[in-house]
User: Fold these one by one.
Assistant:
Number 1:
Amino acid sequence: MENKNITTKIIVCSYEELTETEKKLVDTAKEASNRSYAPYSRFQVGAAALLSGGLIISGSNQENAAYPSGICAERTTLFYANSQYPDLAVESLAIAAQTGGSFIERPTAPCGACRQVILETEERYRHPIRIYLYGTDEIYIVESIRGLLPLCFGKNDLPE
Ligand code: THU
């Protein structure tokens, strides 16, 4: 028997340490959270994606009285990007959440289903997606969804 350790590099930084482009991406995710429709959880999430060429698009979580019919901010954003701009790779993604009128302190991490969709997007465009998890205390940056989804199941696990 042996032990295997899987490690993830997470860059921890403050908003002030981001470049202007990174700040714009995070700001866009924060703004998008204002357009969330979250009457049930009151947890308003925004996401912003930087596409190759520089276009930034955004989305927010959209809930439903039949709970599973809602969708997270990350998937709203990526599905919009992939359907409107199918020829542009997603280069980076920022996520921010607020509740009760305040952005949350800890970095907001994507749920499991969104991680899987982020992985699909990376594989579709053969381009790692740099992910910014915004919190008012600190920001986490990971270079690829693989850091948040080790031992992932992707397209190469299916027969051709
Ligand atoms: N949610 C997101 O939009 N993204 C996340 O990363 C975590 C959770 C949404 C789903 C639901 O509308 C609400 O937040 C509470 O789970």
Number 2:
Amino acid sequence: MNPVIDYLRISLIDRCNFQCQYCMPEGEELASLQQQEMLTNAELLTLLQAVFIPCGFTRFRLTGGEPLLRSGVVEIVRSIAAFPETQDLSMTTNAFLLANLAQSLHEAGLRRINISLDSLEPETFDRIIGRRGRSRWQQVWNGIQAAYQVGFNPLKLNVVVIPGINDHEVLNLAALSLDQEWHVRFIEFMPIGNAALFDQKGWVDSEFLRQQIRERWGLTEGQVKGNGPADVFRIPGAKGTLGFISQMSECFCDRCNRMRLSADGWLRPCLLNETAQLNLKAMLRANVPLEEIRIQVRELMSAKPDINFKMRESGATGAYARTMSQIGG
Ligand code: SAM
Ligand code: SF4
């Protein structure tokens, strides 16, 4: 059965204050969008209220680039959380700016947050995020603690595992789920963003990680709200869970219920397939009636199961030119 398409990932901005090796290769200048190329806050909210919600979307994730760099991010959260149809509103962030914003985001109605944390070693962390000078690890850690203290639940930590860079930390990262209700998710490295690093390092199969964890503590099946494409497990007796997002070893295209709206207003039904997409910003600015935009969005939604099927058949793991930060990972 085709999944119900009700989940929109919204990239608020394509820029980022990190340059993670797996996402934005060092030395490559990614052209950032100019302010006037991005959807304004008002355009974004109009699209949500007058197009996406009437088309059946009820679950929204704010991402980027780094969403906390978007000016007015708290107001955007407040407005989306206030739509009566919103059933779920979440964010994916690198947490560098979170310590000061966690409280206001929570008060504005954000309840779920995913934070990228690829290492517990400040030096390794700084190498991965490609930033020299004063270490950024502690500030990210403070952001995580602040989010936990203001009550973000579930609080998920995303780890992209790269052989020879952070795969030696898998057990230490998994141990974060033992004493606190933190949900650590291991993501298989995809050839998106930095295909050269991918060719050089390869990726680690989730099952291999599970074996290491099983040998150390054992593993049972688990559950967590909004687990999306993750397979969820729990170390016996742990407060939190472990998730495995295995898009390389285990294609989940046929379960995919998400569409993506980029910061410059392109609606895409698939991360890896650009054969079908709509430029909603251009339509809005050309005063195309909202009813017509809704019709086109519904057509794209009905094309998605076919796109999912084609991606599944093709393996869906080929290298891809655009980065996660540009598409809204
Ligand atoms: N800046 C925020 C962050 O890092 O959490 C949000 C945007 S980031 C593009 C969203 C997610 O994409 C992160 O969890 C990141 O780890 C993941 N990601 C980026 N490039 C990836 C790649 N090549 N393979 C797997 N995951 C990737
Ligand atoms: Fe920035 Fe997130 Fe990409 Fe890292 S993964 S460079 S934090 S957008």
